[in-house]
Structure formats: C-alpha cells, structure tokens
Amino acid sequence: MLPERCFVLLLGTIFVWLLCLQLKVEAKTDFELQVDNFTCSSQDTDLQMLKHYRCGMNKNTKRRSWHMEFQLQQPLAEYEVYISIVLPRRKPMPDFVLLNLTTDGCQLLCNRNQVPLLSLGRNIMKRFSNYPKQCPFQGDLIYYIRGFRMDLSLLPAVEMETPVHIEFGYQVKSQGLRWLQGNLAARVQRISEKKRPKIR
C-alpha cells in the first residue's frame, strides 16, 4: 500500500505543479510594460569619449518603444556598465530596489560571469541592437538600440501592477565618469480587454 500511496502523492504533486505553472504562464500574458518616458544624458561634456549620442521614444502611444544610439571618438576596450531597477512605493515605505549593479562591460558583452537577470537582458537585447559580441567598441560605427519593447512573457511570472524606474549606462573604469546614461520610466500594467489576444 505504501508504494501505491507514494505514487498517488507523486502524481498529485506533479498535477499541482503543472497547474501552478500554467497559471503563471497565463498571468504573464495579462500584463505589459508600458514605457512613459525615456531620456539620456552624458557627463562627457568635453567629448573625450563620445562623438555624438541621441535617444527618444516613438510617437505611437499604443505601442511605445524607445531607442538610443551613440558613436565613440575611438575604440573602447575597457568600460563598466551599471544598471538600477527600482519599484517605487508609497511613502513612508522605501522604494524596492530590484537590481543595483555595476559590472565589467566586456564581460557583459560576451556573457561571462553574469548574474542571471543580466544574462537574460543581454539575450533579449540582441534582437534590438547591433552591439558587438565582444570588446572593443569600434570608433567608426554608430551603435544603436532601436524599437525596444519589453515582452514580459520572456521574464519570470509577473502578477502585479507597479511603476518601474530603470537607470542604465556606461562609465569609465576607476574614474566613474558616466559617458552615457539612460533613464526609463515605465509601469507594469494589466492588458486591457481590447488589446488582449483572442483565444480560439
């Protein structure tokens, strides 16, 4: 009897796990990341690093995407990437910091020694950018991120509506000079019935 009970318990556990997994997958398709604003700036006022840069958002309010491009004065083989993801909360509660990290930019390009969230972000970015797979950044190319929209189905299950503030950019190693910085204000929101894909 004991083996039979264990087998029934195992089947029950697998069934519950599959049910939870299905609910999570369905929950992810109920939400989207709506970008409200995207700006960029640079501390490189003397143009030692950058030839030019620009960024912005498309004009389509229903399917907001953002873009950024830059060109360097000369090839760059050493730099750092920083990223901060914060979920603001009502006072007096402190904001929830999901990620606050500075890492070697060359290792990030070639996917070495990364935390899983950064590795996931790097893989998603491949669809929208012409970033190289390894250092250096060349000085004669315009690097870009274009038409970027976050597909929440690529992330672990999201089941809440919340504002999101993301800050990311590049800085000179050891000096901390941020030669390019992007600031994104967005929100995770439930997809309206009109936008929701119809199930056949």
Characterization of the model:
- The protein has 200 residues and is an alpha+beta fold.
- The protein has one domain: Ganglioside M2 Activator Protein, Chain: A.
- Helix content is 21%, strand content 36%.
- The strands form two sheets. It has a five-stranded antiparallel beta sheet. Strands 2-3-6 form a three-stranded antiparallel beta sheet, with no helix packed on it.
- The termini are far apart.
- The relative contact order is 0.23.
Secondary structure elements and pairings:
Layout: H1 2-28, E1 31-41, E2 50-57, E3 66-72, E4 80-87, E5 96-104, H2 105-109, H3 116-125, E6 142-148, E7 162-171, E8 178-190
Antiparallel strand pairs: 1-8, 2-3, 3-6, 4-5, 4-7, 7-8
Pfam families: DUF1091 (PF06477)
Keywords: Signal
Signal peptide: 1-27
